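User: Sequence in, structure out. Go.
Assistant: Echoing your sequence, followed by the structure tokens.
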Amino acid sequence: MVLTVLACKKSVPEEKPSAQSAFASANEINQRLGRGINLGNTYEASWEVKESEPADFVKIASKGFNSIRLPIRWEMPERTLFTAPYTITAAFLAKIKKAVDEALKNKLHIIINMHHHDSLFAKPDVYKPMFLAQWEQIAGYFKSYPDSLLFEVLNEPNGQLDANRWNSFFADALQTIRKTNPERTVLVGIAEWGGVSALKKLIVPSDKHLILTVHYYNPFHFTHQGASWAAGSNAWLGTKWLDTEYERQDVADELKAAIQFSKEKSIPIHIGEFGAYSAADMESRVKWTRFLGRWFEQQGFSWAYWEFNSGFGIYDPKSGQYHTNLLNALTKDAMASPAPVTFTDLYNSNFANAQADGWRLYNNDVSASSVLNIANNKALISISSPGTQSWYIQLIKHNMLIEAGKTYRISFNAYSNADRNISVGFQESKSPWTLYGSKGFDISSTDATYSYVFTSAATDAQCNFVFSMGNGGLAPVTIYNIKMQEIKL
């Protein structure tokens, strides 16, 4: 029955509401998006779920949100034919149309996207014709809708759809969309799972109707503690976010590159996803969510919280009740003052007299080769073969103590003679090598201080303090002035 429908011609006549004659600029549209929320666990799930309810849109609008992001998995046999002409079923298009119409009826802007295209991520060149054909149909179906409907080309490109391929795939998809939607605002995401790590690799086409979409879930051990799909996440249970000025600074540091990119490319920013999973304590979730919401707005970003009524949600569909404190953090609360703290020094590196201060360099694979030298109170790691994984080259100090429930600030100075990435963290000294707190840093030829804050979810008196720098090219890394401090409220 489904196959009969799938085999019909590719061009599906669109059903259209009254259209606007002129489309606003991307900057104006981004301002209008304002505060939004993802209607997740609905059309992007890998199983058939019930349609969104009209009441969902009424609830979202009534709570002060301006927009909805609607994640959609088009890549399912019952939704799209997997061979040419890759027809999307009329029934599924009608479901999405119904959701779009409900959003517009409630004066909500709505972003429809392409979510979880696993075939494309695994074999991008094979499934590119399907990807472009899908966008040809989606764009044609909705071409007469007003500018309050936006298209997001692909959620979190990853796998074999690497940064270089993504640049060409996005450009081709945009060209396809522009045939029928010359002025509609389109969101461009970032390769390598949508965060800022691959932003430098993104090439943005010359187009006045684009918005950059960024996903933000840091600190990941806080936001994804206890999440079944995140390997090792049960070990992070109990991780808190205290809302100190140092945690806030981490956010600003991590998104600095996006702000600079936005200025250089004259492209506005939408935070398409951010959220903390329900296994985290509610007080920390509220603090994190409130700060991010207000900080995003201070930067001129629009945002869409992940999500409405599931594991991260603000609404419990079973009880029919809102998580009021979390909802208020998004929509009502003002920016709070950071939590005042005191510091206790626990460790300061000492590389004087050419001593390594207990640090050892490890080449953990035959593909990696590096040498440690100590001079001028600094550790210099010279790399002759970087290997293919970051952990293939590691500078480690053993037998460090961290304690459950305690919050630590790690800082250090570093530089290289070329831009490169290193990661820093605390890790269990034996299998399964659980990470207790870690963060990646982009270092350059400028000698700079880097830092991050984490709350330990476990006690370990023999953990490793680790700098990982494999798979990052041959540029040497200099590290010094390493500090570990305990933060107390």
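User: And one key feature?
Assistant: The domain at 16-331 is CATH 3.20.20.80 (TIM Barrel).
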